[in-house]
Amino acid sequence: MATEDRVESSSPLDEVMEDIRRELVRRVAAGDRDANRDIYDALENE
Questions:
Q1: Which residues touch 10 (CB under 8 Å, ≥6 apart)?
Q2: Which of 2, 5, 17, 22 lies at a 20 to 30 A Cα distance from 11?
């Protein structure tokens, strides 16, 4: 992945967008775990 060098500080909008992205990733990951619970449980018990 490319890294970003930021010279100026984040705007309030950038901070809100980052919070939204973080929450969406968290929800998608939780949904994936719930949808594939049997697979995760089987891997845990291997």
A1: 18
A2: 2
pLDDT tens for 8-21 read 678 999 999 999 99
Q: Pick the more confident residue, 42 or 22.
A: 22
Contacts of 40 (CB under 8 A, 6+ apart): 33
At 14, list the tokens.
């950038």
Tracing tokens 């901070």 back to the chain, one arrives at 15
DSSP per residue, 1-46: ------SSPPPHHHHHHHHHHHHHHHHHHHHHHHHTHHHHHHHHT-
Cα distance between residue 14 and residue 12, in whole Å: 5
